[in-house]
Every structure is written in C-alpha cells, then in structure tokens.
Design a protein that fits this description.
Length: 327
C-alpha cells in the first residue's frame, strides 16, 4: 500500500529535510512501494546494497537502481502509468495480429481489466499469476512483437532525422541564395551609378531597365529554388524508411515473347476457283456491310489456320532463354 502524505509534501519523511531550507533537494520514488524519499537518503541507505524501505510498516526490499524521479504529482497516476507500461510490454499484440476488430476489442478490454485490478488492488495475486502465466506461455510471440515494434520505432527515428536533415538542407540553400541575391543587388547599384555617370539614357529609363532585370532574375531564382526543393523532397521520399517498397511483380512466361508472331507453317491458297470453299463464309463475303468494315474472307481462313498451327515448332526451353536473360 502507498502511505498517505502527512501534509508535508516538500519534506523528506526520513531525514525531515525541508525543501524551503534546501531548494535543490530532489525526491525519488521506487516502483516497489512508491514511498517518497530524498536523494540524499537514497544514497545513504541503499548505496551498500538492497535494504528494507525505511517507511514504518512497509518492509519491502528496495534497490537503488530502481529509484526514479516522480513525473506526475499524483502518485496514484504515477503508479498506474508504471503498471500500464509493464502490462503492455507483455500484452503487446496489435490490431494486425487479430482476424476481426471485435477480437481486438476484446483483447484490449482484457488488458484494461488487468491494469485496473493491479492499480486498485483487486485480486492482485490472481491477476499477477495470470499475467506471469501468459508471459511464460507466449515468450516467443512477445519477443517477436517487441522486435517488430523496436524496428518501427527505429524507422520513425530515422524518419525524424531525415526530416530534420531535409529542413536544414533547405535552409542552407535558401541562405546561400539570399547571400547571392544581396551580392547581385550590390553589383546592380554599382552598375546603375556607373550608367548614370556615362550613359546618354535618362535616369528613368535606366531605373526601368534595372527593375525589369531584377524582376526577371527574381522569377528565375524562385523557379530554381522550387526545383531544388522538389529534387530534395524526391530524394527524401525515395529513401523514406516508412514507405513500403513494392517489388515489381514477375511476369509469367508466355511463348513467342508474348507478342511475336510465329513463323507460318502453312501457305494459304486462293479462295476462288481452286481454293478452299466455305458456303457460309463465301456468302458473307458478298455482303457489302461486312466488306465496307474491312472484313475479308482470307482473314477468316488465316485466323483459323493460325490457331490450328499455334505452338507447333515452339520449344519452351528455347523460348525462355531470351526472356530470362532480360529479366
């Protein structure tokens, strides 16, 4: 149980040192019991090894390396956050591990029930036993999911570093271009002074020419900056670790390279007189509507013969070689 504060939130209950008199005093807590102890007392009591908690009636064995700074003012919230981290390290499945959203919702409900019981001291022994059993039964799966999440976190870190690098690169280019623009303006001013001294044109004409040249250069520099930014972003997206790379699907093998006509193994004889005669096709050949559309009786016979002889003389092994060489 967590001991209630006695009202002296800024006083160490062990050495009775007050923060008012020692402004630099730091309080630490241990997840075993969450009793607040100043850093000096932790060093003095636990430097030589594990020792019982100095709070009266606690008696839990504490180790110095488990002490930490309190993040939340409410110690109950601090304790619940620690419990949630520990439970979620064991129950670390994600939605992609479940077949249906309903199964994932039931899993999340179970996790919240465990956290609630441990945070409020309800059936602590049974809950801890069930948590330990689940961890032992699913050690490999928990480890695999932990490694998967570690990879995701590493990818996010790389992405953030890449974004920052891209931002710095853009700023560097922009500053360089600004310096070049300042140098250009300085030269323009000097050229204007020289022209005003030696040119026969009026000052208004010279100013108009200079303004036109400045406007033209500004537009050009703007396009250059846009092109550079687009190129940087394209390189960034190409190397983005969070973008899934889709491999080019391997095309299935097709004989004759898919679109190459085989060498004809037949000769189409004439269709009039000594050629092949088909009453149905010959009758269609007299129809002007078909003829106007480009239909010819020879095409019918050629297609039938192509489908009949297709594959004859095609050696699959020989046909695969040129395709495999270009794959």
């Amino acid at each position: 149980m967590i001991a209630e504060d006695d009202g002296s939130k800024d006083m160490c209950p062990i050495c009775r040192t007050d923060r008012y008199l020692s402004p630099n005093m730091v309080f630490l807590i241990n997840p075993e019991c969450y009793h607040k102890i100043c850093e000096s007392c932790v060093d003095r009591i636990f430097s030589l090894g594990p020792s019982p908690c100095p709070y009266p009636g606690c008696g839990k064995i504490l180790r110095k390396n488990r002490f930490k700074h309190q993040v939340f003012e409410d110690i109950k919230v601090e304790r619940e956050i620690d419990i949630r981290k520990r439970v979620c390290t064991i129950y670390n499945s994600t939605e992609e591990d479940f077949d249906t959203p309903q199964a994932y919702d039931e899993y999340l409900t179970k996790v919240e029930d465990i956290i609630f019981n441990l945070s409020h001291g309800i059936d602590v022994e049974a809950t801890e036993a069930a948590l330990t059993k689940y961890e032992q039964d699913n050690k490999i799966a928990i480890l695999e999911k932990s490694m998967r999440e570690s990879k995701k976190n590493a990818d996010v870190l790389k992405f953030q570093e890449s974004v920052e690098k891209l931002k710095q690169e853009k700023l560097k280019i922009q500053r360089q271009m600004e310096l070049e623009d300042l140098e250009f303006k300085r030269k323009q001013q000097q050229e204007l002074l020289d022209k005003l001294s030696h040119s026969s044109n009026t000052s208004e004409e010279l100013l108009r020419q200079q303004q036109a040249a400045t406007l033209k250069r500004t537009e050009l520099r703007k396009r250059e900056l846009e092109q550079i930014n687009q190129q940087l972003e394209a390189n960034f997206n190409e190397n983005n670790p969070l973008v899934e790379r889709k491999e080019t699907p391997k095309m299935p093998f097709t004989p004759f390279c898919g679109d190459r006509d085989p060498h004809p193994l037949y000769k189409l004889a004439g269709t009039d007189g000594d050629g092949y005669y088909d009453p149905f096709a010959s009758e269609l050949a007299k129809n002007k509507e078909y003829l106007a559309g480009g239909w010819r009786i020879n095409d019918v016979f050629a297609r039938v013969l192509d489908e009949t002889f297709m594959g004859l003389g095609c050696v699959i092994g020989e046909e695969k070689k040129p395709q495999e060489a270009t794959a």
